[in-house]
Amino acid sequence: MRGFVPTQQSTVDQMVDMLFKNNRPKATDRVLDPGCGLGAFIEGILRWCKRHHAEVPQIVGIELDKQRADIARQKFLAVPQVEIVTGDFLLDEFEGLFDFIIGNPPYVSILALKEEEKRRFRSRYKCAVGRFDLYMLFFERAVSLGRKGATLVFITPEKYTYVQAGSEVRKLLASHDVTDITLLEEDVFPGRTTYPTISRLRISNVGEHTQIQTRNGASFPVLLPKSGGSWRHLFSNDKPPEVAGSLCLESICRRISCGIATGADGVFVKNAEDLPEYLEQHAWPTISGRQLQPTSSKVKTSSVMLIPYSAESRLKCLEEIGELGDYLKRPEIKSKLALRSCTQRKPWHAFHDAPQMAELLRPKILCKDISDNPVF
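RESULT FIELD:
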């Protein structure tokens, strides 16, 4: 069930409208729904064709979970144009190219993947860099299966548009024609805060401007950079409304961040009570989102982080950190650290992202980055 989140019918219909905008499907066209689940998008395509008196194209749904695939297969037995394939969209081979691609790829963080899975994906996909998510790889695989001029519509988290791990995805998409990016309300998936975004792409076409639809109703064209840099700054063309007595985080914070990414919390994050005395001088108190309680303003943590960096954010050599260096050099510890992707460009005992120590040691406002409601 990993990564499976059903899509509401209203969102499905919105995406199918975008898929067939100014391009009605023909009976000979092929439509792909990767990760089709129980067939919500296939049902949406059939509704659209009936409503617009259009021919039903050939539809292929691919689903990794056998039980869900069987349910979808039974659901569309009476529709000869629909084929449900049980398979792994990212790793299996599929015949032919497609004219339309639509779907809600699974959102699976790299933290939920086994080491063998990470190695396999990194060896196959350019977009499997840094702290990638599986939905990013779905973009790359889907583009490779589209004909020239094919239309792709995906709903994914907004994060791919600005996080460092999404740089290769942004390069890939910007090399085609990203016609629309629509930022949806946060309650599109009830009970989850994912900041969902619909992306529409014309494969192999050369585009100029991308139409942005923001959550506050604004709509405007932008020119996406092809360098892989962040797109976030392009998604707002006006100032937020001023409310008496309110403050924006950016007006009172030097830096807004998800915190430190070690890439190996099992090595660097310890319970303070279990920490040997010889490591205490290298340990700093730390807290994770799961430890923040929305019902209390008090911050309680028994966790500490072992930090091999100086107060100036310089990575210390192993000899400088003495006992911590000896701990990190243990064969079972060193082997874990060496497997991380960041070691391709950094010393093996470095963090995944270099910590900004001067800022991290200042007073902070804390909140869970993903929750039903923001609590600071």
